[in-house]
């Protein structure tokens, strides 16, 4: 994939690429730290159809949404041979009892025999998290286990 | 007490009037520069009400306005950006000079204003208004467009060209010969190169010297440094504004961001005074005779700027619609054309007609520019769709 980096003198930098569908998608990072998501229309890829200013929080939320499925897809691909094992991504929501607490506190493995293989935070995957890893709202937990185990894991993350 | 009362009243009335004009201009969606000029024309020399007793202040203030305009422009760019911008756009930049300096130069020559007047008019029609262009691009949501980096690097090139051009013009205005003028070209090219290298290597230290975490101290230091460098440059006959521009380039990073945020209101204030004073010194009755020339110049130089943008964007493989947009975006002329004309007028050895023509020209171009930028899409669409079946 060719990501083009273009300096915008006096403003910041623009990074973009052309999608298979013929859209130009990218991000303008302004000097003062603001980020803007840009998407071009299909007729004229030179012209932006939408530019959306994103706060830091919104950027990381978007990055999580886009980053986690990719990780899950890779894991699913790897586990295709093993029957009965599935990969899910579950969020730590605002108000979850584990918001601000350590991974070890969930006792996930003991209670559900599900493994937390990675945590996606602000678009970055933290693989093989240790028991002292502290959750915050917005984290996405990539978990591997049986469907049954994953269901109860979901319940634990929501209700404790 | 009595002798300060009148200047205070006059200044207050001027600022208040400008405030009303500024509000009006944003409402109808044009740059306030033409309205400031009109405001200036209405008063002062040959205007409705001559203002007395504020000249010493307004003269210095308008000089500070020019210094701050260029200083903040310099702050916007880092030396690295300028170098990459230059590398990317030098060919288009040369086309820009040839196409857009020519109409002004021809006008100056045909009106018989001598070599200095010719050079000044070349500058007036050459330089786009980076203030108006940037604002139009932002307002129309075109910052993410593919032609926008092209437009911005054209502006960078023009600003660098100014850093060479202004010292030359200053030198010629002080009456040196053509050979001395060439010497000035050499000196200013050398200075600009030297400052760029210094800024690339030691920009950190320059920033550290002016920086302070206390906003008040910071403001005083930055403003002091800008005026000091401008004064030294002026003493060396290099043009005060260019000195400030180069200092702005040397200051970079977060120091530059904070400095421009702090100085912005000051710049707006002093630049407004500069435009009004320019209007003051222009005799409104001199405008009607040059109106036809100004209209012709506006027409021709709109076409040449559109052509410039069309070429420049084409070099970066932008499609036709984007090329048209790039051309239209560059049309506006404004603050720097007046800076050039102001330099000539204050030296006093070129006719007042130059001030009148520049005023009329900038009045037109500052209004035409944003309109052309807005109208280009529907117009170009018709043209390009009209052509498409022929090509198919």
Automatic annotation (TrEMBL), chain A:
<dbReference type="InterPro" id="IPR058776">
    <property type="entry name" value="KhtT-like_N"/>
</dbReference>
<dbReference type="GO" id="GO:0006813">
    <property type="term" value="P:potassium ion transport"/>
</dbReference>
<dbReference type="InterPro" id="IPR036721">
    <property type="entry name" value="RCK_C_sf"/>
</dbReference>
<protein>
    <submittedName>
        <fullName>Potassium/proton antiporter regulatory subunit (CPA2 family)</fullName>
    </submittedName>
</protein>
<feature type="domain" description="RCK C-terminal">
    <location>
        <begin position="75"/>
        <end position="159"/>
    </location>
</feature>
<dbReference type="Pfam" id="PF02080">
    <property type="entry name" value="TrkA_C"/>
</dbReference>
<dbReference type="GO" id="GO:0008324">
    <property type="term" value="F:monoatomic cation transmembrane transporter activity"/>
</dbReference>
<dbReference type="InterPro" id="IPR026278">
    <property type="entry name" value="KhtT"/>
</dbReference>
<dbReference type="InterPro" id="IPR006037">
    <property type="entry name" value="RCK_C"/>
</dbReference>
<dbReference type="Pfam" id="PF25991">
    <property type="entry name" value="KhtT_N"/>
</dbReference>
<dbReference type="InterPro" id="IPR050144">
    <property type="entry name" value="AAE_transporter"/>
</dbReference>
UniProtKB/TrEMBL annotation, chain B:
<feature type="transmembrane region" description="Helical">
    <location>
        <begin position="269"/>
        <end position="287"/>
    </location>
</feature>
<comment type="similarity">
    <text>Belongs to the monovalent cation:proton antiporter 2 (CPA2) transporter (TC 2.A.37) family.</text>
</comment>
<feature type="transmembrane region" description="Helical">
    <location>
        <begin position="6"/>
        <end position="26"/>
    </location>
</feature>
<feature type="transmembrane region" description="Helical">
    <location>
        <begin position="90"/>
        <end position="111"/>
    </location>
</feature>
<protein>
    <submittedName>
        <fullName>Potassium/proton antiporter membrane subunit (CPA2 family)</fullName>
    </submittedName>
</protein>
<feature type="transmembrane region" description="Helical">
    <location>
        <begin position="354"/>
        <end position="373"/>
    </location>
</feature>
<feature type="domain" description="Cation/H+ exchanger transmembrane">
    <location>
        <begin position="21"/>
        <end position="372"/>
    </location>
</feature>
<dbReference type="Pfam" id="PF00999">
    <property type="entry name" value="Na_H_Exchanger"/>
</dbReference>
<keyword id="KW-0472">Membrane</keyword>
<dbReference type="GO" id="GO:1902600">
    <property type="term" value="P:proton transmembrane transport"/>
</dbReference>
<feature type="transmembrane region" description="Helical">
    <location>
        <begin position="326"/>
        <end position="348"/>
    </location>
</feature>
<feature type="transmembrane region" description="Helical">
    <location>
        <begin position="33"/>
        <end position="51"/>
    </location>
</feature>
<dbReference type="GO" id="GO:0015297">
    <property type="term" value="F:antiporter activity"/>
</dbReference>
<feature type="transmembrane region" description="Helical">
    <location>
        <begin position="218"/>
        <end position="234"/>
    </location>
</feature>
<feature type="transmembrane region" description="Helical">
    <location>
        <begin position="178"/>
        <end position="198"/>
    </location>
</feature>
<feature type="transmembrane region" description="Helical">
    <location>
        <begin position="240"/>
        <end position="257"/>
    </location>
</feature>
<keyword id="KW-0813">Transport</keyword>
<feature type="transmembrane region" description="Helical">
    <location>
        <begin position="293"/>
        <end position="314"/>
    </location>
</feature>
<dbReference type="GO" id="GO:0016020">
    <property type="term" value="C:membrane"/>
</dbReference>
<feature type="transmembrane region" description="Helical">
    <location>
        <begin position="57"/>
        <end position="78"/>
    </location>
</feature>
<keyword id="KW-1133">Transmembrane helix</keyword>
<dbReference type="InterPro" id="IPR006153">
    <property type="entry name" value="Cation/H_exchanger_TM"/>
</dbReference>
């Amino acid at each position: 994939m060719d990501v083009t980096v273009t300096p915008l003198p006096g403003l910041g930098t623009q990074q973009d690429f052309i999608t298979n569908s013929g859209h130009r998608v990218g991000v303008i990072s302004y000097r003062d730290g603001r980020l803007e998501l840009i998407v071009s229309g299909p007729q004229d890829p030179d012209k932006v159809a939408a530019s959306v200013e994103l706060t830091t929080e919104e950027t990381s939320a978007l990055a999580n949404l886009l980053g986690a499925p990719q990780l899950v897809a890779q894991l699913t691909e790897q586990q295709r041979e093993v029957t009965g094992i599935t990969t899910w991504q579950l969020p730590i929501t605002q108000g979850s009892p584990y918001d601000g607490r350590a991974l070890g506190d969930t006792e996930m493995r003991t209670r559900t025999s599900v493994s937390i293989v990675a945590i996606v935070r602000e678009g970055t995957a933290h693989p093989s998290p240790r028991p002292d890893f502290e959750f915050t709202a917005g984290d996405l937990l990539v978990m591997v286990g049986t469907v049954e185990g994953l269901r109860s894991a979901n319940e634990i993350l929501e209700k404790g | 007490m009595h002798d300060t009362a009148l200047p205070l009243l006059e200044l207050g009335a001027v600022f208040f009037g400008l405030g009303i004009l500024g509000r009006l201009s944003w409402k109808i969606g044009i740059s306030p520069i033409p309205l400031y000029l009109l405001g200036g024309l209405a008063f002062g020399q040959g205007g409705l009400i001559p203002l007395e007793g504020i000249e010493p202040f307004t003269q210095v203030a308008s000089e500070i306005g020019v210094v701050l305009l260029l200083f903040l422009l310099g702050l916007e760019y880092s030396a690295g950006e300028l170098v990459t911008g230059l590398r990317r756009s030098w060919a288009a930049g040369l086309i820009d000079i040839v196409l857009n300096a020519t109409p002004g130069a021809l006008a100056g020559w045909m009106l018989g204003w001598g070599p200095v007047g010719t050079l000044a008019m070349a500058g007036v029609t050459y330089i786009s208004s980076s203030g108006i262009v940037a604002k139009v691009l932002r307002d129309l949501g075109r910052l993410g467009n593919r032609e926008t980096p092209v437009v911005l690097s054209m502006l960078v090139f023009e600003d660098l060209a100014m850093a060479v051009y202004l010292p030359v013009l200053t030198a010629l205005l002080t009456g040196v010969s053509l050979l001395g003028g060439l010497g000035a070209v050499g000196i200013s090219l050398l200075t600009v190169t030297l400052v760029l290298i210094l800024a690339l290597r030691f920009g950190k230290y320059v920033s550290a010297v002016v920086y302070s975490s206390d906003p008040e101290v910071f403001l005083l230091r930055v403003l002091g440094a800008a005026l000091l460098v401008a004064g030294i440059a002026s003493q060396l006959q290099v043009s005060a504004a260019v000195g400030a521009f180069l200092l702005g380039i040397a200051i970079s990073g977060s120091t530059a961001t904070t400095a421009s945020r702090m100085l912005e209101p000051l710049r707006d204030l002093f630049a407004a005074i500069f435009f009004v004073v320019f209007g003051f010194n222009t005799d409104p009755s001199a405008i009607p005779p040059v109106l036809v020339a100004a209209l012709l110049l506006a027409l021709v130089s709109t076409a040449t700027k559109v052509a410039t943008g069309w070429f420049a964007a084409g070099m970066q493989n932008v499609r036709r619609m984007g090329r048209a947009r790039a051309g239209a975006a560059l049309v506006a002329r404004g603050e720097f054309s007046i800076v050039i004309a102001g330099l000539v007028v204050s030296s006093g050895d070129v006719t007042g007609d130059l001030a009148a023509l520049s005023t009329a020209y900038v009045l037109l171009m500052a209004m035409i520019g944003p309109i052309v930028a807005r109208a280009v899409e529907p117009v170009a669409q018709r043209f390009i769709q009209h052509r498409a079946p022929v090509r198919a």
